[in-house]
Amino acid sequence: MTKSRIGLSALALSLALLALSSTAYAAKPPTEAQMVELVGGKDSGWAPAIFKDLKKGMTPDEAKAVFPKMKKVSKFGFADVPVKAPGVKKLVLYFAKDKETGERNALQSARIEFVPALTKNEDWFKLMLKVTQDKWGPIRKPEESIAKRIITWVGPKYRTAQFSKIGKQFQLTFNP
């Protein structure tokens, strides 16, 4: 077997394993306890549990102290944070541009991106509705919000949390 065929075989095997890992999430979504650990409960404050130490206006260096694996902030202000949590693809932090310096140095929002395989899992969606309502309260206009897959809660000091389907995945966005 030539080196190029070996390389192609390894690539095919890697792609097959990646497909299987995505399927595994679809077959076995995160449990309620795992989602509560990620989002938090009613008594854990307004912020999702995973973002409890973030504050609006934090610099990238301050955020990196909270999430040491945070990647470099892009020119558009986004920084990915790899995490190992059931059903989570990654975390994304958004830093606004400073009007005076032009630097992306003020944290404005944080979001949890869920693995795309969960998008078609109605049981997981219902579980997330339960977990998020247990934390932030009932959904206003539930029929409309649930049908559109965009559910927003407004909390103290106009801080918001939004569970929504964007493209092919769900995300939970939080504004500290």
Could you explain how this protein is built, in words?
- This protein is of the alpha+beta class and 176 residues long.
- The chain has 5 helices and 6 strands.
- The protein has a 6-stranded antiparallel beta sheet with strand order 1-2-3-6-5-4.
- It is globular, with a radius of gyration of 18 Å.
- The chain starts with a helix and ends with a strand.
- The relative contact order is 0.15.
- Biggest sheet, open or closed, and with what strands and sense? 6 strands, antiparallel
Q: What's the Cα radius of gyration?
A: 18 Å
Number of helices: 5
**What is the number of beta strands?**
6
If you average the pLDDT, what whole number results? 86
Helix content range of the residues, please? 25-40%
Question: Strand portion, in percent?
Answer: 15-25%
In one word, what is the shape?
A: globular
Low-confidence stretches: 4-27
Helix and strand content put the structural class at: alpha+beta
Distance between the termini: 56 Å
As laid out across the biggest beta sheet, the strand order is: 1-2-3-6-5-4
